[in-house]
Amino acid sequence: MNSDLEFAFTIGTIDGLITALMIASRAILQDNLISSDFALRIALGSSVVGASSYLVAEYGRLRAEDAIVYRHLRPQGKSRISARINREIFFDAFKGGAISLVMGFVGASIPLLSFTLIPKYHFLSPALSYITLIVLGMALGRRSGGRMILWSISLVILGLSLTILGFFIEVIA
Q1: Do the domain assignments include residue 132?
Q2: Using CA atoms, how far apart are residues 85 and 65, in angstroms rounded to an integer?
Q3: Which domain covers residue 24, as residue numbers?
Q4: Looking at the domain assignment, is residue 59 inside a domain?
């Protein structure tokens, strides 16, 4: 898998997971039941929003990179990217968006479905989420050449922060 698709895989999972934590944290921490159907609808909504954002951002990034290269190759010529190249850029962004969509759904399902399937142990839902963030942080650290522990700690702090924020803003109570 190339690095752009790995990024879509990772960012989709993280986005879905932290969004679901923020949306449902009040219900999870207060042990208020969420139906499986409702959990799946939250996961789907979260993944669609995340994938749409990814698609727009990635398409813009790829267009900007290609425009810079094109200007360097043709400094006096027109700086318009051909329709064929534009389609390839969109297709690449779309592939990443599709991966982000699927992984956003998977990521959002971690806290939501673990809570709905094992409501007696509601504390497992955030714990599984934070463990997932640790693993994703290690992968990001390894991939970026950074320190895996710092990436993991940063993602867990992000997850905890959004859990606390979600608890106080009560999106779902």
Answers
A1: no
A2: 12
A3: 3-123+159-169
A4: yes
> Tokens for 122?
């509601």
2 pLDDT higher than 90 = no
Helix, strand, coil percentages for the chain (3-state, nearest 5): 85, 0, 15
Q: What gap in Å lies between CA 155 and CA 71, rounded to an integer? A: 38
At residue 13, the pLDDT reads 96
Tokens standing for residue 132: 């997932």
Q: Rounded CA gap, 139 and 152, in Å?
A: 9
Is the pLDDT at 154 greater than 80? The verdict is yes
Split into its structural domains, the chain has a count of 1
Cβ–Cβ < 8 Å for 142, 148 = yes
Residue among 139, 156, 131 nearest 11 (CA): 139
pTM of the model: 0.88
